[in-house]
Amino acid sequence: MHALDYVIVIVYLIAMVVVGLWMQRKAKKGIESYFLGDRNLPWWALGASGMSSNLDISGTMIIVALVYAIGAKGFYIEIRGGVTLIMAFLMIYMGKWNRRSKVMTVAEWMTLRFGKGPQGDMARLIQAITSIIFTIAMITYFAIGGGKFLDSFLGIPKSWTLQIGSIVIGTEFWAAFILIAIAMIYTVASGLYGVIWTDVFQGILIFMAIAYVVIRALGLQLPEAFAVGMPLKDGGFMQVQTSFREWVSLAPQWRLNIPAESDYSMYNVFGVLVMFYLFKVILEGSGGTGNYMIQRYYAARNDREAGLLSLFWTGLLSFRWPFIAALAVWGISLGSGITDPEMVLPAVVTVLPVGIKGFLIAGLMAAAMSTFDSTVNAGAAYWVKDIYQQYINPHATDKQLMKHSYGASILIVVLGLALTVFIKNINEIWSWITMGLGAGLLIPQLVRWYWHRLNGYGYAIGVGAGMLTAILWKVFMKTGLLPDSLAPEYYAFIAASLMSLLGIIIGTLATRPIDEKITANFYNVTRPFGAWKKYREMLPEHVRLGIKKENKRDIISVILAVPWQLSLFMFMMNLVFKAWGQALVLGLVFLGLSVGLYFTWFRHLSTEVIVDSEPKA
Known about the structure:
The protein has 25 helices and four strands. It is mainly alpha-helical. The radius of gyration is 24 Å and the shape is globular.
C-alpha cells in the first residue's frame, strides 16, 4: 500500500476506537446495558448493525471464490449459510417469538421453556457451553479470513514467522492479531452500544466500498470463453475452462462437471446438495438462531420493530450480492494470474489506484470488525449471565459482572485466535461451523418450539450428543481415524443431526415431563404454532382465535418470504452480470412476492395478540 492508503486505514481505525470508547459510559451501567443496550436501541440501527455483522471478510472471500470458480450457481451452494436465508424466518415470526421471551441469551431462554429446576438448569448450562464453543469457532473463522486478506497488504515481515515444533505461526496470524486487537478495544469497552453504533458507522463505509466496486465492474466485459482457478485436493491449484454463458447461468443442474482432482469436485452432486442445503436451512430457520443474530431481537422494543429491523436488515444485505458478483467478474478480468479462488478479493484490491485501495481496505476491515464485535459481545454473555451469575456467584455485584464481561470477551478471542494455527482454510472452518457444529444444535433448536413434551433433559442430552459428534468427527477426520470417503460435509451433518435426534427422544421419554404450569406460561408468553393444542385450549376463546389467525398468517408469509429473499438476492447479482433475461424474471418474481407479503405480513406488523388472562389449568 501507498502511504496515503495507510493514512486512510489508520484514521478509520482511530475513529472506530473513539466511537467505541465514547459509548462506554452507557454500556458500563450494568450487563443489561452491556449486552442488550437497555432494549432501547432503534430498529433501524439494529437492522443496519445486523447487515454489517453478516458481511465479513471470511464469508466474502469464500462466496467470491465459489462464484468465481463455479459461476452464478455458486450462489446455490451458499444457501448452506452464506445467503443468510434464516432472515426470512426471523422476519416473519422467529424474531418476534424470541423478543417476547424477554431474555438476554438463548441459554437464559431455557429457563423460560423448562423452568428453574434441574431440567432448566441442565438445558441452560449445556446451551451456554455449546454457544461458547460455537463463538470460539466463529472467531477462528473470522481470524483466518481477516488474516489471509490483510496479510496481502500490511507488509508484515517474514521474520515474524515463528515455529514451535511442528506448529508454524506465520504472517497471516499476525495480521489477524492486529485486526482483532484493535477491534477488542471498543468491543470490550462499550458492549452492545458500541457494537451497534460502530456497526452503523462501518455500514456506511461498507456501502461506499460496494458502490465503487460495483460501478467499476459494470464497465468490464468478460470474454465468451475464459479459465478460472480451482483448488486441488493435494493443496495445489488448476485452471478450468468455461464459457460466459455457462458461467452466468442460474438454470438448475443435477450435476456439475468439475474435474475429479479438484477440491470443489464435492459439489458435482449439485442437485442433491442444493436440496440438502435448502432442507437444512428451512429446519434451521424454523428453529431459530443464536449468538449475535438473535441478540438483536432480544434488544428490540416490540414485535413491530422486530419485523421492521428484519426487513431493513434483509434489504441492506441484498447489496452484498452485487458486490460478490462484481468481485468475481473483476477477478476473471484479471486473467489466469489468480490460482487460489479464495484470493480473488485481495487480488482485486491490489490493482486499485492509490487512495481508493486504502478506502476499500478500510471498508473491508469494517466488515470484518463488525462481525467480530457482534460475535464476541454475544458469546461473552453466555459466560456472564448463564454460567458465572447463575451457578458460580448468584449474588455478584454489577462491578463483578462487568469485570467478567471484559474477561470473558478477551478469553474467547484468545482461544479463537489460537485455533487458527491448526486450521488454515476458510471453506474448511465455515463448512464445519455450518454443517458440523450447526448440525449438532439444529434438531434440538427446532424441536424446542414445536413439541410441548420436550423437557430440559431431552434438550440437553440432544445438544450434547450432537455437538460431541460434530467435534469428534472433526478430530477423527484430522487424525485419519475416519476414511477420506467420509470427508464430504453432509456426512458430518447427518451424523451430528441423527445423534442429537436420538438424544432428544431418549432423554425426553426416559425422564419425567415438565410441570404443566411452566409449559403453559411459556406458550402464553411466546405463542408459537405446533403441538400446543392442549395449552391453547386453556385460553379464552377470543385469545385463541387471535393466536390462530396470527399463526396462519405467519405460515403463509414464510412460504412467500423464502423465495422472496432468494429472488431479491439473485436479482441484484444478475444486474452486475448483465444477464438481463434472468434479472427480468427474478425481478417480476420478487415484485409478485412482495405484494403477497404486504397483505399477509407487513400490514399486520402492529397487530399483537395479548394473552390477558391466566390459563384454566
